[in-house]
Amino acid sequence: MSDLKQIGFIGLGIMGKPMAKNLIKAGFKLKVHSRSCGPVKELVEFGATKASSPAECATNMDAIITMLPDGPDSELVILGQNGVLEGVREDAVVIDMSSIAPGISQKIASSCEDKQVGFLDAPVSGGEPGAIDGALAIMVGGKQAVFDRSNGIFDAVGSSYVLCGDYGAGNTTKLANQIIVATNIAAVGEALVLVKKAGLDPQKVYDAIKGGLAGSNVLNAKGPMMISGNFMPGFRIKLHHKDIRNSMLTGSELGVSLPLTSLIQQMIVSLVNQGKGELDHSAIATFAESINDSKIS
Amino acid sequence: MSDLKQIGFIGLGIMGKPMAKNLIKAGFKLKVHSRSCGPVKELVEFGATKASSPAECATNMDAIITMLPDGPDSELVILGQNGVLEGVREDAVVIDMSSIAPGISQKIASSCEDKQVGFLDAPVSGGEPGAIDGALAIMVGGKQAVFDRSNGIFDAVGSSYVLCGDYGAGNTTKLANQIIVATNIAAVGEALVLVKKAGLDPQKVYDAIKGGLAGSNVLNAKGPMMISGNFMPGFRIKLHHKDIRNSMLTGSELGVSLPLTSLIQQMIVSLVNQGKGELDHSAIATFAESINDSKIS
After folding, report:
1. 3-state DSSP assignment of residue A227
2. What does pTM read for this prediction?
3. Which of chain A's residues have a Cβ under 8 Å away from the Cβ of B199?
4. Arch. (CATH architecture) of A6-167
5. Contact yes or no for A209 and B177 at CB 8 A
6. What number does CATH give the domain A173-292?
7. Dihedral sign of CA atoms B37, B39, B40, B44 in order
8. pLDDT tens sequence across B113-144
9. What is the DSSP code (8-state) at residue A90?
């Protein structure tokens, strides 16, 4: 069993709140901090204690988990004034489970190393249902020894976790994940608009193809949303927008040409301009609708 | 049980040969015809009789199945001189399981109706393994009564079959299937080139993402081929090329804008120009390699 038993958890959003609850259920002692009071109150009723700043949340903890919207949030909460690194003790582990640019993960890792604090970037895939069920796929970057110490934590929130490489590798892997997911959603959307324009029933097409090579977790989870036109989030387009932007930035830094990802980015920018940023990312499929004045549903 | 017991089967290629064998195993009487002698001999040893032309293959049969490379082949074999419609009797059913343009299916259907012959377009997904295992996903277009009469045949070669609409709907659905498959392959390729350029091990990335929302039948079946660089066909790029070309043609006929499919078509044209047309379609992933002077494997 790991030596990491007391956890400071920062960021109780759609993902963070159920993850924190699963950690409590698994026997970890939690101290929590979040910008909004509601989820903090809910977690305190669930058995957590409360901290009024990231620094206080990190104090005397074995591990600190952050689950935040984007890289600048992680930087501020971990490296900023009253941040995690002002409270954390030596040999603790900071696990940033936010989905952010790999370069920022590497910067945070470097500051943690300067303080003899372990660091992992450990973004997840699986969305709110995965967070609630403790069934997230966790993509980890960092050192093997720190990863090994953290396995008990990952067991409590995930169904799989893989050390993909050194600092930043978790978030690089997450970018790959998000490229594949967004492109698949867009392709399903384009295909369903084509069949709808040909006079077919998209539901029948969905039934016919889901068992073949076109079958995917995206098709199973998102196809019915496209067919019904119900895009209640879930994971919002504006957050996928950030991931695709980070993919293009990382590609640019590494000198990698990403033509498909680039087209997906343009589609998402258009959808945000259409006022769809708050919809579930399955609505990326509606780009094909918008350029064809058509509806899948 | 269906009244369709005696089947003329035309086209014993990679897909047709195992499908014909599965029909014999299921108790159907088969008469076969194919351009190459080897598979015909093999099927005759397996219990089939032999016909020297499509017309002869169709004579006195309850159903005629064609499994051919492209639309012009289907037109020639069914409508041409010495073709199926010269031999077929009234009330028989012609089932074209080739993947062709929906417009050609509709043209063939019309000629069949003129002769009081039933017609279904019934392309498949699942590749050679699906054909061997009798586990194809079959996408069908045509009339309900003819579809119902043909269920016993589909049971023998497929694990699922759905009537997607009227004549051509099977092939329209197949186009949707092929758009999704090719785009997903290309997206996985682009994502894996990105992580490779970032210094990660694509195998670890594959392990980390396959259980999440990026997971798919393409990732399971084709990811290992990309990572090992083994693109033995399987389903060749030049055949996927034809399907994507038919998708763009159908989109053009219907006035549907298909930007992702269009980009995929350009990638495939480039791969054919690189001499990769005979590779498995998983090698669509190598487009990202070719533009980045990189290797996933």
Report:
1. helix
2. 0.94
3. 165-166, 169
4. 3-Layer(aba) Sandwich (3.40)
5. yes
6. 1.10.1040.10
7. positive
8. 999 999 999 999 988 899 999 999 999 999 99
9. T
